[in-house]
Amino acid sequence: MHDSAIESKKRIRILDVPVDAVSRAEAAAVLDALLRTEGCSLIATPNSEILWNAAKDAGLKAILDGADLVIPDGIGLVYASRIIGSPLSERVTGIDFLDAALCRLADAGESVYLLGGAPGVAEKAAERMRARYPALRVAGVCHGYYKPEEEAAIVEEINESGAAFLCAALGSPKQERFIHAHREALRVRAAIGVGGSLDIWAGVQKRAPAFLRERGLEWLYRLARQPARIKRVAVLPLFMLRVLAAGKPRRR
Ligand code: UDP
Question: How far, in Å, CA of 13 to CA of 200, rounded?
Fold first, then answer.
């Protein structure tokens, strides 16, 4: 089945990694279309760090190439898109997109399965999601620290739950690999990789205050709260330099 929201979305490439040039509203329209489409659609939410990793990891890049929706979850992607002359209209964060998805699922009477986070986190996130969207059905939850040999049973449990939407908050690239590896077997309509979103829903981690988010400084807030992220944040200047180098006109 084809849908105009899916067909009309424009895909750009940053360091040869795909990113969809969608606004928040367009991303939500694509989600509506994907939820009406047969098969398990894959939704990725790369920030600069994930994009940088995908540029160096052909396997991860191929997974993103095969994704149905790749939303630009980071101010670094917005800057990079301007440098390469294909400006993204706005940053669409995974956490905001997930919120829009939950709201839609609640309205439609569909259910979500929550996978990821430390034991107890998904349960707490489910409780808070239900408090916010009383009509939302959380069909099941599972923490993200399972053994590889338990994966097949988890896929079975997701399918048996009857969920229409899978929220895989396992961190990247584990979440993208999980969805990709089980895409054929999964009976959900769409699955999203959303990093630490369940930690935020559960209240284990806090979101940056709005004034920092509006200025594209969420990464700085997270660094201040979790100094161990410094190694991850350190790839940002490398990423921007590589984009600048790739984007500058060639000398004759
Ligand atoms: N996580 C998990 N299983 C793992 C490794 C990580 O469920 O094997 C979870 C972890 O508990 C955290 C999330 O994945 O909730 C990763 O969060 P991170 O802050 O790295 O993601 P980001 O939001 O930066 O993409």
Answer: 29
